[in-house]
Amino acid sequence: MPRPTPRTARTLSAALLFCLAGLMAVSMAKAWELDRDASRIELIGTADGREAVTRVEDFEVDLEGDLDQPGEGQLVLTLRSDSITGGNDIVDGMLHGHNWFDVETYPEIVFRSSDIQAPAEGELRIEGELELRGETYPLKVPASWTRQGEQVNVYGRLTLDRTDFDMGRGAWRTEGTVKHEVHVDFSLVLLAPSRP
To answer: How sure is the predictor about 130, in pLDDT bands with cuts at 50, 70 and 90?
Structure first.
């Protein structure tokens, strides 16, 4: 086998260094940090003809990747189901019970992305699966985002039919008291990963 010429050796060395640098960048990738105090997730429905706002008070976001090139990114959103609150004990007792979130049996609600795309500047289309009460549902989430320095705000509204997710069993199945349509409003404030 012929020995590589100095020029060929330099080319091979450069290619090897480039590949190693790429692998190091991937292995050293860090997740964005969620600003809990500035972030919110709300479920907005209609009950007894009036708007009913339910808050999720405890959730985590695990986001890795570059929002300018999101295709290689990954997102996992985890919500503590017992932190979902309508603001009073009566409503919370209903929401936490078997007909709704069944928080004792299913303490977490998890959304995992399978594909993140940027159809236009400042826009995201996140496809993935929602794990809710032991079942898994495909879900598409449209979102917008803005950047201010090292801080990014990802926000949007998702409109769902709660019965598609088997939410509101028994007497709650009909729209007599609680409408089927639910809006999910979210605003997530993320801080850029610290540089190594």
So the answer is: very high
Structure tokens at 48: 């007894």
- Check residue 178 and report its DSSP letter: B
pLDDT for residue 23 is more than 70: no
Two structure tokens written together for 95: 């929401």
Tokens describing residue 61 = 């976001």
The more confidently predicted of residues 23 and 100 is 100
Strands 84-85 and 135-148: unpaired
Three-state helix/strand/coil letters over the chain:
CCCCCHHHHHHHHHHHHHHHHHHHHHHCCCCCEECCCCCEEEEEEEECCEEEEEEECCEEEEEEEECCEEEEEEEEEEEEHHHEECCCHHHHHHHHCCCCCCCCCCCEEEEEEEEEECCCCCEEEEEEEEEECCEEEEEEEEEEEEEECCEEEEEEEEEEEHHHHCCCCHHHCCCCCECCEEEEEEEEEEECCCCC
pTM of the model: 0.81
C-beta separation of 120 from 90 below 8 A: no
165 close to 132: Cβ distance less than 8 angstroms: yes
